[in-house]
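Quick one: structure for this chain?
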Amino acid sequence: MIEKVKLRNIMTYAFASREDLLKFIEDKRQILVAVNAEKILKDNVKLHNIINNNIGYSDGVGAVLALKQKGLQAVKIPGAEFWLDIIDRFEKEKSFYLIGSSTEVIEKTVKKLKQEFPSVNIIAYRNGFLQDEDKEKLIEDLKLKKPDVVFVAQGSPRQEYLMEELLNEYPALYMGLGGSFDVYSGEKKRAPSFFINNGLEWLYRLLQEPTRIGRQLILGKFIFLLVMKKI
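Got it. Here's what it folds into:
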């Protein structure tokens, strides 16, 4: 049985491997939400409620350390990679609907997916710029085409808010992907393997975008609270 515990105000599952998470979501109709230090410390009741009613998994090193501090076995599962694991596992069994980024990026993403996963059933896709009338059309399209998995790449918490709206209208497995389409399509570069393997992806992002310093300072606060066992 997969255990979950509260990290401050967020219920987070402890998955010992990506395989465990793949098995866990096989028949789920919920939202997969990446949990990291920033989300754990953020005072956002609406976002916390969405995570607590769905499936929060440890996407960041901070979440992994907090789960291990509570005696649970957990690994970092980067959402930027795991969505491709989902396609790889279920490409012949499930259908997919992609939402996010610009029209150019989403088209490049779909083209590359069809090259890498020849059997993948992408039944529809669209960019991530949605007005209220677009949401209504999107919900109608989901109900019509009935995808099993819906990927939404808009950035947090906007993507979580949208996925909750969609889930209430059409049950499926939803996953928020942030900027994953931009990285996968080649529009943006992900951190080199050295940074990823050593839990320093945050440092690479900071070096690339110094304006992120405010967000990265949160990590220092998180480590302090972790040491004080207040997470």
